[in-house]
Amino acid sequence: MSIWYLAFFTGFFGSVHCLGMCGPLAFAVPSRHSGWWMVLFDKLSYQFGRIISYSLLGILIGFVGQQLWMSGLQQFVSVVSGLLILVAGASRILKFRTSIGTENGIGIFNRAFTYALKHKANHLITGMLNGLLPCGFVYLALAGAVTVGSPVGAMNYMALFGLGTLPLMLVATFGFGMVGPIFRRKINQAVPYLMVCLGLWFILRGASLDLPYLSPKVAPQTEVCN
Fold first, then answer.
1. How far apart (Å, rounded) are the C-alpha atoms in residues 93 and 184?
2. Cβ 204 vs Cβ 214: under 8 Å
3. What is the rounded CA–CA span in Å between residue 219 and residue 9?
4. How far is CA 43 from CA 20, 74, 166, in A?
5. 3-state secondary structure labels for all residues of 96-128
6. Among the residues of 119-180, which ranges form H helices?
7. Is 175 helix (H, G, I), strand (E, B) or coil?
8. Do the beta carbons of residue 10 and residue 136 sit within 8 Å?
């Protein structure tokens, strides 16, 4: 599987999780227009605000990945990322708690988001704030982006992840409510198993076992990919 397809479908299949976690925030941002086309524009602006923030996070994590690739640690990065994703997925399946210290970050986010709503910030700005919300699924995407090996590549990875979340989030926030709570619960139950599969894939990818698609042989790096 191409890593670009992986980025998009991680966002697409994880968007039900995003709807449960970030949906209430999106619903809390009112549109001050009456025409449906302007309401749709507002909701699109909100979603693209999230994607912009994801892309900016991708650039930052891409600089980290670039340095690691230049040090010849690309396979190590892939294996470590896979292990982190695997532990995160297993923790949800086995019901044990892992702490990544997001409480302070959530507090800062809540204050910023409340301030933006109070001062009637536009949908693009509030969407960008939403994209910075500490979120385990975004961390999952960033763990994949760091393995790409360049800021531009990591930015593209995170943008594709964000685009994957767009269809369901847009439909839900536009008011159709097509996804019921029972379906959301079932998808959320399946998400940890998806995380385990992704973790195993990253580990195999880093292992360089010369298995087509699953674990291709990695040639020695002479320059950073774009």
1. 17
2. yes
3. 27
4. 17, 38, 10
5. CCCCCCCHHHHHHHHHHHHHHHHCCCCHHHHHH
6. 123-131, 136-145, 151-174
7. coil
8. no
Give the predicted TM-score (pTM) of the model.
0.70
Rounded distance between C-alpha atoms, residue 130 and residue 173, angstroms: 14
Q: Express each pLDDT in 57-102 by its tens digit.
A: 999 999 988 887 777 777 777 788 778 778 877 877 887 655 554 5
Place of tokens 């991680």: 10
Q: Two tokens at 162?
A: 């964000």
CA–CA distance, 1 with 36 (Å, rounded to integer) = 39
d(CA 49, CA 63): 22
Instruction: Outline where DSSP puts E strands in 16-148.
Output: none
Instruction: Indicate the DSSP class of residue 72.
Output: T
